[in-house]
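Trying the structure run again after the queue cleared.
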Amino acid sequence: MAMKGTGIISGNGDEQRTLVVVFLRGGADGLTLVPPVGNREYYKVRPTLSVPEDELLKLGEANCGLNPAFSGLHQIYRDGGLTVVPAVGSNDDTRSHFYAQDLMEHGGQIAGGWLGRFLRYREGSPPSALSAIALGKAMPEVLRGAPAATVMESMDTFALGSGSGSTAVLQKELGALYGLEENILGPAARDTLEALERVEKLRREDLAPMNGAEYGDNAFSRGLRQTARLVRAKVGLEAVSLDLDGWDSHFAQETLITPLMTRLSDGLAAFHRDLGGLMENVTVVVMTEFGRRVAENSSFGTDHGRGGTMLVMGGSERGNVLGEMPELETGILVGPGDVPVVTDYREVLKPILIRHGAGQSMGDIFPEA
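Done. Tokens:
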């Protein structure tokens, strides 16, 4: 029995929304990504790492601005599609990468990931084979507990066989096997085979990005390009997890993270341009486990801190700054000299998840918040 193609796999048609979570692993320095405006202490304790105020990309009247490497994101902010959240973080005070990442991805001291719980408890149709994708080699903690999640390095790895001919024959045979099944395995198998068929078509067509978007030749940009293609194909994609590693900047910070900031900004700007009007139904959240200490160290780097930065692009974002960059004088710093956490990261995520269909399940997604 041949399967007939539909507008979307187990989804909500043109109302399908996709949440893309980008994790900057290593503790990205929020005071370099989003430096303060008009704060003399910042320049005093960062004689080599501070960003000159006349080079900052201003965010209206806010007391913080974007790093000049974020020119692509700044244009999106000016067009009303980006929210910037300074001094954001969790209640972790260990300053340990592994503990802080787990706590933030789990949404508290609880089993499973907050994105996995969202997919389990959210309203709407049952999940499909491509409801959730982790672009990488391993399942991230944030997706643990999801009803269905696929790990792939690229669309080439999402297949039944190594050759297109053998794949087509196997899919046809499996389609006939499961076509008449009415038990729980039938719909799941048909969804998976439909997803394989869609992905195989995307691989064959390899369509160029839309609207003149140009992606860089790096793993992060390639992951965003594949995500955009899956969004356009309407495969029922609800959640994507994508990492950008390398932000642990104890030494030679400027040399280390300036290329990463450019890669982040250029990749997200290309993704935004590629999807165009579809960004109304796509939200990108950029987060990191913690920020860095206010003062630079003797190795021209910064050590583990507390308050960091989040960025939210797309969806119903309207170009604003959520919260405020705190003053950085010694009296208000926490621990050994860290930016205090002004905004809990879960408070940033909650309205986003509600917009994506969380309904009344927020207490299940973040039971400790």
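The radius of gyration is 21 Å. Worth checking whether this holds up in the mutant runs.
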